Amino acid sequence: MHLGVCYYPEHWPETRWPQDARQMREAGLTRVRIGEFAWSRIEPEPGQFEWRWLDRAVETLHAAGLGIIIGTPTATPPRWLVDKLPDMVALDRDGKPRGFGSRRHYCFSHEGYGEEARRITRAVAQRYGQHPGVVAWQTDNEYGCHDTAQSFSAAARNAFRGWLADRYGTVANLNEAWGNVFWSMEYRSFEQVDLPNLTVTEANPAHWLAFRRFSSDQVIRFNRAQVDILRELSPGRDIMHNAMGFYTGYDHHDLAQDLDVLGWDSYPLGFLEMFRFTEEEKRDFARQGHPDIAAFHHDLYRGCARDGRWNVLEQQPGPVNWARHNPAPLPGMVRLWTIEAFAHGAEMVSYFRWRQFPKAQEQMHAGLLRPDGDPAPAFAEASLSAQEIAAIGACTDAPKHAALIFSYDSEWITQIQPQGEGRSALWAAFSAYSSLRSLGLNVDILPPGTDLEGYNLVVIPCLPVMADGLADALGRFEGQIVIGPRTATRDAEFAIPSGLVDAGFANLVGGKIVRSESLSDRLQITGDGWTAKGWLDHYEGAAEPEFVSSSGEVCSYRHRNVRLSCVWPEGSMFDQVIERAARDAGLPHERLPRGIRRRTCGTTLFTFDYPTAQVSFG
Ligand code: GAL
């Protein structure tokens, strides 16, 4: 278990580096991440490398006893490279170039840039791959940040056509799969297929889904090229990437298969401000973040990671600069977030960043040190956390309670065709997670193919595409199952199955969804002491109604060990469905007071009190 920090030696005079390194160690930090935005200093002129400054930085940090994580600098290609390859920049959905002057100004499909990215990765890995101080690598930085996973460039279009030819074999197959007879959208060759932007009204959702899958594959391919080089030149070091919060632009399960450790960047206050939380939640948790934001991502990315190895590569230390409003965390929150990450099994928490840089875009973003070099409030909390984590020990034996199934494919389907505003599979997963966690349960968020052995409860909040074998696995599962709306109602090509739902799912729930409606918040459904909203699936079959509204709508059914919720997994009816399922599953549970969360690891019970920023464990 390590605490670390993101450090930019290139921002500070060299004379300060030894003091920084010493102070990091004194604070109890043992890891430092460097280099991910330093391309213009590493290679100031094409082909001319300036290694000496970075050599000295690496030596200084190593001499202080810090394990170094180096980032490949491909998120910030220098100006001279953009001048050399002007069409390497991505085009946005309106066809406008996303130019130089900030970061992530590249298109994943541009072959010339791909070559440059491999070249600089090789150069850095050759220089530091065998250095005893280098313990790990981070590839690039936050793939997809600033909405960059998709590009609508000529390079992307050409690569997309090749991808389609590989997937469908013939254009007739593509026309059939997508239903292109509708509106005379049929193609006569793959060369006629454009990207799905710039159409008069919405493009075919199957076209969008293919483009989302393609764009994800391009990210995975770009990353894999770097991983291959790092494995060759720096054997024995972990390779990581830093994922983001509430971000689904590529399939993280796929990406993680190529990594040793999946990292993510945790900014709970920024996320609370920027994402769809209620006004009440934004008010009550303004300085804490909603109590499930961090934990949801810990459990999601642990489930994505190849061997369950994950970490927090960036942790918010104070106000950020990029949300609508940027308050400071309540005193105690930096420590709470840190301990909570370890309670969920993190191997490392690394703060972003060491020292606030007084210039450029992030001058309002806090660090552990203020711009003048004196400690900021988070510094003391980081030091305290360092002492405490040693006492906690690694969380490797958390009991399995509930498995929550989530897939990126299903999320793309709900984003492309939400049918009701905001009805996304990711948010369904978050709400269902919150219901489970309000009962004090441990939750593992898993991709559809995962073995369900050992769980007592499986929750599928919203999974339009049933993955192969999932219905069978659920059929064999002896614990309790809760299934949410829209599930099994599309095939892998975004079409409604001939039997209206996936055949295995029909067996499981003893019937099928025959029609669906989405409901605005004005159309709330109420029952005896409960409310439901957002969606209503109409079911026909052998299952028994369990929750029926005052006006007669059946909002959830029960069939053997399966509960089917026809409404969106938000609101008190869904909470009750989850609570009944937890009870029937024999799970120890208890409705926790608002803002209190728990996590069990082995015999240790952690309690996180968000309203007061207190943590207790024992
Ligand atoms: C992350 C990013 C960092 C920094 C940080 C600020 O998204 O990886 O480089 O910009 O946000 O909060």
Itemize the secondary structure elements and their pairings:
Elements: E1 2-6, H1 17-26, E2 31-34, H2 39-42, H3 52-63, E3 67-71, H4 79-84, H5 111-128, E4 134-138, H6 154-168, H7 171-178, H8 205-233, E5 238-243, H9 252-256, E6 261-266, H10 268-274, H11 279-284, H12 293-304, E7 310-315, H13 333-343, E8 348-351, H14 377-392, E9 402-405, H15 408-416, H16 425-437, E10 443-446, E11 457-460, H17 470-476, E12 480-483, H18 503-509, E13 511-518, E14 525-526, E15 531-532, E16 535-541, E17 544-548, E18 554-559, E19 562-565, H19 572-584, E20 596-601, E21 604-609, E22 614-617
Helix pairs in contact: 5-8, 6-8, 8-15, 13-14, 17-18
Bound molecules: beta-D-galactopyranose.
Report on this model:
- By secondary structure, the protein is of the alpha/beta class.
- It folds into 3 domains: 2-145 and 214-392, Glycosidases (TIM Barrel); 154-207, no CATH class; 402-593, 3-Layer(aba) Sandwich (Rossmann fold).
- The protein is 34% helix and 17% strand.
- It has 19 helices and 22 strands.
- Strands 1-2-3-4-5-6-7-8 form an 8-stranded parallel barrel, surrounded by 5 helices.
- Strand 7 (310-315), helix 13 and strand 8 form a beta-alpha-beta unit.
- Helix 5 packs parallel to helix 8, helix 8 (205-233) packs antiparallel against helix 15 and helix 13 runs parallel beside helix 14 (377-392).
- The longest helix is centred in the middle third of the chain and has 29 residues, at 205-233.
- It is globular and about 75 Å long.
- The chain starts with a strand and ends with a strand.
- Beta-D-galactopyranose (GAL) binds at residues 141-142, 145, 265, 267, 314, 320, 352, 362, 365.
